[in-house]
């Protein structure tokens, strides 16, 4: 895959500057950046808000005519918090359990660390609580920093290594919408997709019932590129060396993943897969070729 200067710019910014997309503030920074990038090539963009609260909202970005498109290619842009173990594709319940366990474990460890620090201070302080003492103010500063950190930990630590899940799919979608300006094809960057399908449900409520939806997930890893769905030509998949498995739903999924050896195989990405710092450009090329 020939990398252009523009692609290298996207890669740098979305791998590092906009790598975290969890809070409303970080998502809005990402949305501002990606809308600016899309506007260089086309202006048929919609931003759809849902789950609106007093100060926050979830947002999908649509490029093209979602209501009239026969084919919609999408991916989620929000990033998950840290969790134990591998990423289990198509199993949000299991992912939720591992994330909750990580949050509980790290929160308990932080509380224990705070208690140990307090006991150590109380044991070694040689005088009463003296506001004129430098040691007292140092302890107050450390205690304030501790509670700030505890608040962050209790909400889940953000995963900064998001190149594979799911920046790789975002970059692929940017390449596709840049070159494939067909009125019957639309694109969507979906919120609330790292755990669950809220953003996907909002998308489905806006498009034609018979529209074919293709969803990308973690396509840039070194694992085998796989499709799940019935709207692919077997010969094309064979020519590209793309694996096909039974459909998970009416949605067509394109993803890279490792396969378990169970009688009912599942797909996953290891921690090492998710921490990759370079993209599998061969997989990106195959995805683009699927939509030629």
Can you give me a brief rundown of this structure?
The protein is an alpha/beta fold and 292 residues long. The chain contains nine helices and eleven strands. It has two domains: 207 residues, Aminopeptidase, CATH 3.40.630.10; 64 residues, no CATH class.
Bin the strand percentage: 15-25%
**Silhouette:** elongated
What letter string, H or E per element, gives the SSE order? HHEEEEHHHEHEEHEEEEHH
Number of helices: 9
CATH class of the largest domain: Alpha Beta
Strand order of the largest sheet: 1-2-5-3-6-9-7-8
Helix content range of the residues, please? 40-55%
Query: Average pLDDT value?
Result: 89
CATH topology of the largest domain: Aminopeptidase
Break the fold down into its secondary structure elements and pairings.
Blueprint: H1 5-17, H2 24-38, E1 45-50, E2 58-63, E3 71-76, E4 87-88, H3 92-124, H4 134-154, H5 163-179, E5 185-190, H6 198-206, E6 212-217, E7 225-228, H7 234-240, E8 243-245, E9 252-256, E10 258-259, E11 267-269, H8 271-274, H9 281-290
Parallel strand pairs: 3-5, 3-6, 6-9, 7-8
Antiparallel strand pairs: 1-2, 2-5, 4-11, 7-9, 10-11
Describe it.
With 292 residues, the chain is of the alpha/beta class. It folds into 2 domains: 5-81 and 161-290, Aminopeptidase, CATH 3.40.630.10; 91-154, no CATH class. Helix content is 44%, strand content 17%. The strands form 2 sheets. An 8-stranded mixed beta sheet has the order 1-2-5-3-6-9-7-8, sandwiched between helices. A 3-stranded antiparallel beta sheet has the order 4-11-10. A hairpin with a 7-residue loop joins strand 1 and strand 2 (58-63). Helix 1 (5-17) packs antiparallel against helix 5 (163-179). The longest helix is centred in the middle third of the chain and has 33 residues, at 92-124. The mean pLDDT is 89.
């Amino acid at each position: 895959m020939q990398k252009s200067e523009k692609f290298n710019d996207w890669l740098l910014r979305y791998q590092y500057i906009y790598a975290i997309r969890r809070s409303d503030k970080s998502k809005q920074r990402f949305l501002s950046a990606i809308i600016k990038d899309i506007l260089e090539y086309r202006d048929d963009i919609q931003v759809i808000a849902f789950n609106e609260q007093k100060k926050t909202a979830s947002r999908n970005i649509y490029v093209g005519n979602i209501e009239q498109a026969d084919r919609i290619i999408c991916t989620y842009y929000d990033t998950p918090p840290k969790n134990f173990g591998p990423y289990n594709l198509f199993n949000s319940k299991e992912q939720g359990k591992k994330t909750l366990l990580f949050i509980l474990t790290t929160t308990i460890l932080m509380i224990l660390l705070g208690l140990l620090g307090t006991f150590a201070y109380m044991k070694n302080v040689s005088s009463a609580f003296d506001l004129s003492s430098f040691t007292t103010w140092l302890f107050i500063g450390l205690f304030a920093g501790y509670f700030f950190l505890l608040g962050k930990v209790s909400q889940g630590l953000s995963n900064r290594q998001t190149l594979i899940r799911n920046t790789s799919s975002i970059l692929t979608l940017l390449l596709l919408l840049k070159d494939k300006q067909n009125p019957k094809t639309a694109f969507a960057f979906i919120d609330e997709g790292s755990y669950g399908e809220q953003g996907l449900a909002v998308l489905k409520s806006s498009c034609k019932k018979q529209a074919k939806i293709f969803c990308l997930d973690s396509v840039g890893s070194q694992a085998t590129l796989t499709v799940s769905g019935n709207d692919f030509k077997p010969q094309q998949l064979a020519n590209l060396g793309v694996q096909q498995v039974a459909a998970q739903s009416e949605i067509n999924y394109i993803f890279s993943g490792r396969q378990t050896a169970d009688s009912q195989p599942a797909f996953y990405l290891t921690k090492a897969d998710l921490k990759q710092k370079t993209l599998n450009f061969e997989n990106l090329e195959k995805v683009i070729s699927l939509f030629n």
